[in-house]
Design goal:
58 residues, mainly alpha, 0% strand, rod-shaped
């Protein structure tokens, strides 16, 4: 029973720490664009566009 006196405040502290981290992430805009990052990884923007004569050959 004595261990509960230490564990309950420790768990409340860790829960508050997690809540503070979530609120920080929410306020800093981590969840603003949920689908943009997921779909951006599928498209490769690093490649230079093909010149017009190569586009016609394809």
């Amino acid at each position: 029973m004595k261990s509960l006196l230490y564990l309950i405040p420790a768990m409340l502290f860790l829960g508050g720490l997690g809540l503070a981290g979530f609120l920080w992430a929410l306020k800093s805009g981590q969840y603003d664009d949920m689908e943009g990052n997921a779909s951006r990884i599928l498209f490769d923007d690093d490649e230079a566009p093909l010149p017009p004569e190569e586009k016609n050959n394809e």
